[in-house]
Write a structure and sequence with these properties.
Length: 158
């Protein structure tokens, strides 16, 4: 099952969620992907630092436009999760397979410019996303049942 995580810049929150869905979801057959409407061009260095500090592989991560997942040759998504309010409010492409949609709004840790507080903000974002991904993975959902999938994603945000 493929889950696409969207954030406008695709450099912090969505990158972290992509890694968490992929690594924690591997036993359940879940694969995370991420993209943005106006990608920054590369993952935020602090996002990579925090992921690596928690033992995650960051090789191959990239900041990319969301339209790459609307192409006919793109993997079919079963769910699309927005993690920033601006991405949730945007009109995005029509995704092949008509995936369910959910919103897990979080403050942007990259907006914290004071270096001593930035790592703390990224760690808090990592923990919030990890908690939500773990709650989703432990819940009762089926990839072929859009209602159970949407309910599980929404419940994980509560």
């Amino acid at each position: 099952m493929n889950i696409l995580v969207l954030c406008t810049g695709n450099s912090a929150r969505s990158i972290i969620a992509e890694v968490l869905f992929t690594e924690l979801g591997r036993p359940c057959g879940v694969r995370g992907h991420s993209a943005g409407s106006d990608p920054r061009g590369e993952p935020h260095p602090m996002a990579l630092t925090v992921l690596e500090a928690h033992g995650h592989d960051t090789s191959g991560l990239a900041s990319k436009r969301w339209d790459v997942f609307a192409r006919p040759d793109a993997p079919v998504m079963q769910a699309v999760v927005t993690v920033c309010d601006s991405a949730a409010a945007e009109t995005y492409p029509v995704w092949p397979g008509a995936p369910v949609q959910a919103h897990w709004g979080l403050a942007d840790p990259a907006a914290v410019t004071e270096e001593s507080r930035q790592r703390e903000a990224f760690n808090a974002t990592y923990q919030a996303l990890r908690t939500r991904v773990e709650a989703f993975l432990k819940s009762d959902w089926r990839a072929d049942d859009p209602v159970s999938l949407r309910n599980a994603l929404e419940a994980a945000h509560a």
